[in-house]
């Protein structure tokens, strides 16, 4: 069972992509992989004024993830708290995990030649901190919540 989730209050989001930037900084990612993404969702216009809303997308940390059993090196791991992460030492960059994921979430990190994906900044979570994307959200539109608290 998943314990955590990142929730977007779309009414607060201004689409600044600060979450994406701080995720990349925290994970020291090169140009290319984006582990969390804000996208624009066009809505119906109101009185002729076009409206848009934003959507947050990252790994869903599935209850029964397809990516974990498909990894030939057992590099995809699901923790007891539901966080799915990649053991970089074991990963060989074959990207079977991306092929198994219905949303193609894992991406190739060109700097390391290994798969990379959102792991809720598990190193920060283990210290009692929130993921970088949540902490640095300019408008506080992102919330990191424990599902049992919702």
Automatic annotation (TrEMBL):
One of its GO terms (molecular function) is 4 iron, 4 sulfur cluster binding. It comes from the Bacteria. It holds the Pfam family Fer4_11. The keyword Metal-binding applies. Residues 4-34, 50-81, 82-111 form the 4Fe-4S ferredoxin-type domain. This is 4Fe-4S ferredoxin. It comes from Desulfolithobacter dissulfuricans. Keywords: 4Fe-4S, Iron, Iron-sulfur, Metal-binding. SUPFAM superfamilies: 4Fe-4S ferredoxins. InterPro entries: 4Fe4S_Fe-S-bd, 4Fe4S_Fe_S_CS, ET_IronSulfur_Cluster-Binding. PANTHER family: PROTEIN NRFC (PTHR43177), PROTEIN NRFC HOMOLOG (PTHR43177:SF3).
């Amino acid at each position: 069972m998943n314990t955590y989730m990142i929730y977007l209050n779309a009414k607060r989001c201004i689409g600044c992509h600060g979450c994406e930037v701080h995720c990349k900084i925290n994970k020291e990612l090169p140009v290319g992989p984006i582990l969390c993404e804000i996208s624009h969702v066009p809505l119906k216009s109101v009185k002729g004024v076009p409206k848009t809303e934003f959507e947050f997308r990252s790994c869903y940390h599935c209850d029964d993830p397809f990516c974990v059993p498909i990894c030939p090196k057992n590099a995809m791991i699901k923790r007891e708290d539901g966080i799915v992460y990649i053991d970089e030492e074991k990963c060989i960059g074959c990207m079977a995990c991306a092929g198994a994921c219905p949303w193609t979430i894992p991406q190739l990190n060109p700097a390391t030649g290994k798969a990379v994906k959102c792991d809720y900044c598990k190193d920060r979570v283990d210290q009692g901190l929130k993921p970088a994307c949540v902490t640095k959200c300019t408008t506080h539109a992102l919330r990191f919540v424990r599902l049992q608290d919702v």
